[in-house]
Write a structure and sequence with these properties.
Shape of chain A: globular
Number of strands of chain A: 12
Helix content of chain A: 40-55%
Order of helices and strands of chain A: EEEHEHEHEHEHEEEHHHHHHHHEEH
CATH superfamily of the largest domain in chain A: Dehydroquinate synthase-like - alpha domain
Radius of gyration of chain A: 20 Å
Oligomer: homodimer
Number of helices of chain A: 14
Distance between the termini of chain A: 28 Å
Strand order of the largest sheet of chain A: 1-2-3-10-7-6-4-5
Largest interface: A-B, 40 and 40 residues
Largest sheet of chain A: 8 strands, mixed
């Protein structure tokens, strides 16, 4: 968890550069940087920029709208709303928002700021990717999950009735601004759902980040800003490195899906109602850890530490889904290709490996093994 | 209209290579090549390719489906239908088609063939661009307009209620197969609507193509295959050159919009009902030619030849729209940026120039000047 060559510290703001096929963008991380947006967003001032659109949820806007507006002044964004919740992450909403933009006079020079959690970020990014075949956009994530995961990497999209994120684009933002202070109003369950993705980042590529969360778990859980900021920055750096190596998920980016094969299956099989995304991933990581252990890729001590850390943040009980239904759901995973199920395992703490030979029997055994242990740890 | 270095002739098939940011693709042009699709489509046989989807219209499929199936055998595509007509070029149809694909088991290794006119090609390309954030696709255009224009260049998209092609992606196909024989069942009006785009290609960049159409207009109008094939190949070569220089329309690609500022305005102001796209572009080209003449960029003789050629193919009368409404519609054009209206003029036959200082008064004068002359030339 050292500062990488691509990190710069500007006063109290950490900056991480994310390489893309067509250039790069900067993620700024700090506490209270919502008050200096103009400085954090050079893209706002691009030549020819006429209209600024802002996509947010009513909840976020009522909490932070006034400070956001003041920070952007004298520029006045045109505010568009997306109701909170996964069920609004649909093409019909994208169409409604695009129509509102067209009516307000949006053209190719317009810029959109997505100010909200994962749904606002994913829909805002997708809307930007397809409006007039692509306009600039900026991510200002307001949840921990969106800060450490979905706002970085350029994945945008919407759900179909048949599955999550089945339509979308790889479309990188111009900038990402992650303000730790925004996390102060997050419900505790949502904070923890984000911590699981940070734990994942440590597990797949940064043992020092894992140790940091292990030794600062109390501070993180009570939102000590300095601890959160370090965890967020280290998590984003992992993500930036990985997507920089493989923007379109043809190779190494797959490791970001550690815990996701079974996690997505849990979400799909329970109709996306029982658990938050991060919570499903928590269980998926425990299952993938069990499989890694069975293959002798992890020591018993490593497994104990991983499970203890995940359980510290108390995911709700494993939902009552049969192993058979979970396997069915896993076979529809988007990461599969030509019928081959790719699976991420751990070969030691901080080191992920991708394999395509994990059998149904191994998955079933792992699920049966963790199910009785399930239930909130705190 | 010489063979460019990137053209190759393979038996009776012309091949034109289109460079893209991420590689290149080949356009094959010939008569009857529908019967050798497997040979024309190496992408069909890519490693890991499991499912092949085919998007077409019921009309096209009833005319050509049997030959298409036979040519693809032993592979069996899963056939998806999009009804004919611009009103089906909507996100709701894209969503329906994506859902059908998901239910049929489409994954990232799947390939889609768009077999139809411009609407099928644009929607099929867009569907491919966003399905699981991008799958491979092949264009098999069945109208002259789609062959010479929309199937090449990677522009995909759908309409909003507020305007055409307001959502979409730049997403190049893997291959394009243009079979001249498919044009034999095209209604005459649609054939001519495509000829206008070929005339445009000549006017903006290839005086020899313009002369070829001028001297072969009778053969083209009665669908002499050899003449059509030469015209199609030369038109595609122009398009390939231009989009190769500027895939995302930030510069020179703008010249492809010759006739389109006023053409689009005619379409929008008449609710897309009075004229076919190509016919509106025909009138737009006549207007842009008049403005070029007023600016002394074209000789009177050049103007006479351009008008005579367009009128030979007999566009329907200029619709009864006031100049004011046309100007309003033109101000909403997608090619505008930050309030500046970019306009393509001709500086001599075969040479387009882009300008942003064409005034409303010049546009009004051009429209008033051509309106009384309007009406079918044939």
């Amino acid at each position: 968890m050292t500062v990488s060559p691509c990190d710069t510290i500007d006063g109290a703001v950490r900056k991480i550069s994310v390489p893309t096929k067509s250039g790069q963008y900067t993620v700024s991380i700090g506490s209270g940087i919502l008050d200096s947006l103009a400085k954090r967003m050079p893209a706002l001032a691009a030549k020819d920029r006429k209209l600024i659109f802002l996509l947010t949820s009513p909840e976020i806007w009522s909490l932070w709208g006034q400070r956001f507006r003041a920070s952007l002044a004298p520029r006045q964004p045109i505010v568009l709303f997306l109701p909170a919740g996964e069920r609004y992450k649909r093409l019909s909403q994208v169409e409604r928002l695009a129509t509102e933009m067209a009516k307000a006079g949006a053209d190719r020079s317009s810029l959109l700021i997505a100010f909200g959690g994962g749904v606002v970020g994913d829909v805002g990014g997708f809307l930007s990717a397809i409006y007039m075949r692509g306009i600039d956009y900026i991510q200002v994530p307001t949840t921990l999950l969106a800060q450490v995961d979905s706002s970085v990497g350029g994945k945008t999209g919407a759900n179909l009735q048949t599955g999550k994120n089945l339509v979308g684009c790889f479309y990188p933002p111009q900038e990402v601004v992650a303000d730790i202070e925004l996390l102060s109003t997050l419900p505790q369950r949502e904070l923890r759902a984000g911590v699981y993705e940070s734990i994942k980042a440590g597990l797949i590529r940064d043992a020092a980040l894992f140790r940091f969360i292990e030794t600062h778990r109390e501070q993180i859980d009570r939102r000590d800003p300095a601890s959160l900021e370090k965890m967020v920055a280290a998590s984003i750096r992992i993500k930036a490195e990985v997507v920089g190596l493989d923007e379109r998920e043809s190779g190494v980016r797959m490791i970001l899906n550690f815990g996701h094969t079974i996690g997505h299956a849990i979400e799909a099989a329970s109709g996306y109602r029982a658990l938050l995304h991060g919570e499903a991933i928590a269980w998926g990581m425990i299952a993938a850890t069990a499989i890694s252990r069975k293959r002798n890729l992890l020591t018993a001590e490593a497994v104990r530490r991983i499970e203890a850390m995940i359980r510290y943040f108390g995911p709700p009980a494993f939902p009552p889904i049969s192993g058979k239904r979970l396997l069915q759901a896993a076979s529809g995973d988007k990461k599969n290709r030509a019928g081959v199920r790719r699976f991420v395992l751990l070969q030691g703490l901080g080191n992920a490996v991708v394999t395509d030979d994990v059998t149904d029997a191994e998955i079933l055994a792992a699920i049966e093994c963790i199910r009785p242990l399930s239930g909130s740890g705190k």
